[in-house]
Design brief:
About 20% of the residues are buried. The protein has a four-stranded parallel β-sheet, with helices on both faces. It contains seven helices and four strands, in the order βαβαβαβαααα. It is globular. It folds into three domains: about 100 residues, 3-Layer(aba) Sandwich (Rossmann fold), CATH 3.40.50; about 40 residues; about 40 residues. By secondary structure, it is α/β, with parallel strands linked by helices. The protein is about 50% helix and about 10% strand.
Amino acid sequence: MKIGYARVSSSSQDLELQKQALSAAGCQKIYSESISGKDNNRDQLTIMLNDLRSGDIIVVYKIDRIARSLKGLIDIIELLNTKSVDLISLDSGDKVDTTSPMGKAFFQIAGVFAELERSMINARTKAGIEKAKADGVKFGRTIGSKNKTTQDKLEKILIFLQAKKSYDWIAKELSVSKQTISEIKRSCLKY
C-alpha cells in the first residue's frame, strides 16, 4: 500500500499541493500536519510509522518533508528497514526511491557523503578552536557569570521540569545548560 506523508512548517502554509501530488502518485492514505520538522516527534508522523505494515511504501513530496536532518532521516530509514517498508520522494531534485537496489545503494552513498561532510566540518571547527586557544582567545563566559537570558527562561524551565521533560529536551528547547536546569531544580523545586 502506498501511504503519503505531507508536512508544512506552519498553519499559514498550504498542504494542498503536496496532497494532490501524493494522490496522483497513487497514495491510498495520506497523513498530513502543520508542524516544524526540526525533530521526528510529530503526531501524524508517529501514527503513520506505527501503522506501517511490511511491504508498504511511504511517498513524500520532498525528502525534507519527512526529515530535515540526516540523523532524523537515518532514524526513519532504519525504522522503515526493520518494518520492510520503502520510501519514495517525488521531487526530481532529491529523488529517493528505496524500492530498487540502485535506489537503496544511491541513498546509502548519499548518506555516507553527508556524514563525511559533517565530520570534516567538525574537524575544521575543532582545529580552528584549538588555534584560537593557542593564540590566547578565551571562550565562554567568565567563571561565575550568568547567562543574562536564563532569568527570562526560569518559569518555562520550572514548567518543563514539573511536566517531567528530560534535561536534554529542556536544554535543547530553551538553549540552556543541563547544569543551569539542575541548579534551578535544586533551588526552586522541593521534591
